[in-house]
From TrEMBL:
PROSITE patterns: GTP_CYCLOHYDROL_1_1, GTP_CYCLOHYDROL_1_2. Transmembrane segments: none annotated. This is GTP cyclohydrolase 1. Its EC number is 3.5.4.16. It holds the Pfam family GTP_cyclohydroI. Residues 9-186 form the GTP cyclohydrolase I domain. GO terms for cellular component: cytoplasm. One of its GO terms (biological process) is tetrahydrobiopterin biosynthetic process. Zn(2+) binds at C78, H81, C150. It comes from the Bacteria. Keywords: GTP-binding, Hydrolase, Metal-binding, Nucleotide-binding, One-carbon metabolism, Zinc. HAMAP family: FolE (MF_00223).
């Protein structure tokens, strides 16, 4: 994927400032285009990362029971309005044939997928599909809960509103008890 072009972002921010009636040469705004470009470079850094790379190193462990990493904080940018949404992700899987990943790798996958212009639904399914494709577990369940600034600061203006999405793969598709077990751990 292409690298982020900070010069173009700076030019665009200057144009936006002019378009809203501001003077980009005003003292308080002089460095704003550069600051916004650096921020975009950081918040869109996931564009250059394939989350599968976090699962290239796996460990062999005789464990075929639930692994859940919950309350993984993330920040993303809504691709429809380019305003933030943020929340927590919960990632669960049941290893197969001793294929386990380092726990931090689950959080890194969430972070890399969220650091692009994004939809919450896509974050949820991409993380689940990445784990299924790389670890080949018995099953994966990803639950994401987020607040979207496009609903908080504009439009309907409902602060505190949460959106919850889930992606269920493998054994969790048919096993309602297993899904309920995960949800009980997430909610406690």
């Amino acid at each position: 994927m292409a690298n982020i072009n900070c010069n173009k972002i700076e030019e665009a921010v200057r144009l936006i400032l002019q378009a809203v009636g501001e003077d980009p040469n005003r003292e308080g705004l002089l460095e704003t285009p550069k600051r916004v470009a650096k921020m975009y470079e950081e918040v869109f850094s996931g564009l250059t990362i394939d989350p599968k790379e976090y699962f290239e190193t796996i460990f062999s462990e005789d464990h075929e029971e639930l692994v859940l990493v919950k309350d993984i904080p993330f920040y993303s940018m809504c691709e429809h309005h380019l305003v933030p949404f943020y929340g927590t992700a919960h990632v669960a899987y049941i290893p197969r044939n001793g294929r386990v990943a380092g726990l931090s790798k689950l959080a890194r996958a969430v972070e890399s997928v969220s650091r692009r212009p994004q939809l919450q639904e896509r974050i949820t399914s991409t993380v689940a599909d990445t784990i299924m494709d790389t670890l080949e577990p018995h099953g994966v369940m990803v639950v994401v809960e987020a607040e979207h600034m496009c609903m908080t600061m504009r439009g309907v203006k409902k602060p505190g509103t949460k959106t919850i999405t889930s992606a269920v793969r493998g054994v969790f598709v048919k096993d309602g008890n297993a899904r309920s077990e995960i949800l009980s751990y997430i909610n406690n």
